[in-house]
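REQUEST ID: PR-0412
SUBMITTED BY: lab tech R.K.
PRIORITY: routine
TASK: structure prediction, single protein chain
INPUT:
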Amino acid sequence: MTGGPASTAGQHGDDRVGRTSLLLVPIALLSRGLAFAVPAVIALWFGVGPVTDAWYWSLALPTFTLVLASTALGTAAIPALARVRQEVPARLPIFIGSLQCWAALGSGAFGLLVCLLAGPALAVVTEFPPETVSLARAFLWELVPFMVLTTAGAVARVANEVHGNFVAVAMTPMVRAGVVIASTWLLLAPLGPHALPWGLVLGEAVQFLFWWGVLGWRDGVWPRPSLRLDPALLGVGRDLAPILAGEVLVALNLVVDKAFAAMLPPGSVATLEFADRARVIPQTLLESTLLMVAYARWSNLFAAGRRVRARAEVARSLRWVIVLAAPMLAGMFIGRQALVALLFQRGAFQAADTLATARVLGWYLPGVLPNLVGILAVRAHIVERNLRLVLVLGVVSVVVNLVLDALLLRPFGLAGLALSTTLNMTLVPGLYLWALRRTWAGPVEAGARRAWGRTGALLAASVAVAAAVELTVGPPASIASPALWIAALPCLLLLALGWQLSRTAPATVP
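STATUS: complete
OUTPUT:
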C-alpha cells in the first residue's frame, strides 16, 4: 500500500490514516502471534537447561539495547527522510544508504564492545558451569551480524513507512519469524545449539532484504551504500541523542520496578513480568498500526509546510485512541483474571499465580490509556522539534517512578509497584499534552470542542462500566463465565459508539 507525497495528499488524508490503521490490525495480530512461536519452538527443541541459559543471557543485552536504538533511530530518521523526500527526492537513495552504513558501523562497534567486555565478565557475574560460559561467549560473537542488521534494517523499515508501505512493514514480522523457525530447524543437525544465533541472523537478513526490495520495486528508491556525511545525516545524529536517551530512561523504569520487586517474597519478579506482558498488549497493537501510519503522515505534512493540517491530525489521532481504546481497556480490566488465565495458566503456572498476576494487572491497567496517548504526544513533539523536552521528561519519569516505588512498596507490595507505574504513566503523558497546548490544532478545528466533549463522555462511560462491574460481581474467573460476556455487552456498545465517533470528524483544516 503506497502513499503519495504529502504535498499531493487529498482532503481526506486523515481518513486514510484511520482506514489504513484499521486494515493493519488483523495483520499486526497475526504477525505478533507468529512471533510468539519463536520462543515456543526454542523451548520445544532445547527445553530449560544450559543451552537456553547461555542463549537468553547472550541475547539479553544486544536485544534490549539495540531494540531501543532501532526505535530511537527510526523516530529520529522519519522526519529527516520526509524532508529529503519532499525537497530533493533524487538524494533519497544515497541518504538512506549513508544512514544504513553509519547505523551498521555503530551497531557493529557496539557488538564488538559487548563481546570484549561481556564475554570475560560471564565467569564473574554468573554461576554458569564452564561449558555454559564457553557457549554463551560463542553466542555473543555469532550475534554481531544480528546487531548490525537490526539497526540497518530499522532505516529500511522507516524509509518504507515514509513512502506509505505500511502493509509490507506490518507483514514483515511474519516473514522474519517464519525464516527464523525454518532456518534454525534446518541448521539444528549440522550446527547444534549454534543454529540459534544463525537462524536469527538469517531471519534478520531476509527481513532487511524484503524491506529494501519493497522500497526499490514499489517506489524506485534503491539505497546506495555510502559513508558520505551531509547536513541531513548529521541532523539525524543530533536528533538521535536526546531521543535515545529519553527511550533508555523510560525503559529503565521496568528495570527499577524489578529491582524493588526482588525485595519481596520469591516469585514477585516473575509475577510483575507476567502482568507487564499482558499490560503492553494494547501498546504493541498501537505501535504496529496507528502510531506507524500517523507518525509518517505527520512528518510528511510538516516537510510539506502544512503544519496546521498536521496539528489537526495529531488532535484527531489522540481522539481516536481515546474513543477506541477506552472501551477495550474497560473490557480488559473487567476480564483481567480470565485474560491472565487464558494467556498463562497451564503447566507450572497455577490458579494462585493467575490471581496474583491479575491483581497486579488491575493496578497497571488504569495507566494504559494515558500511556497510549503519551506515545502519540511524544511523536508529535518530535515532529515539532521539541527534542529537549523528550530528554527532560525521560529524566522526570525515572525520578518519579523511583520515588513512588520506594514510597508504595512496603504498604502495598507488588500492587504498589504497579500503582507507581500507573501514576507515572498518567503524570508524564499529561505533561506532554500540556506542553502541546500552544501548538495544538484542536481549538482551530470547526467543531473540535464538541468532538472533545463527546470523547470525554465516552471515556467517562467506559470508566463507569468497569467500576460498576468491579463493585458488583468483581472480575470473572474464566473466559467461559457468563458474567464476563454480560459485562462485555456495554463495552462492545461503547466500542461501536467510539467507532462511529472516530468516523465523525470536525471540518478539515487545509
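NOTES: The chain has a mean pLDDT of 83.
REVIEWED BY: pending
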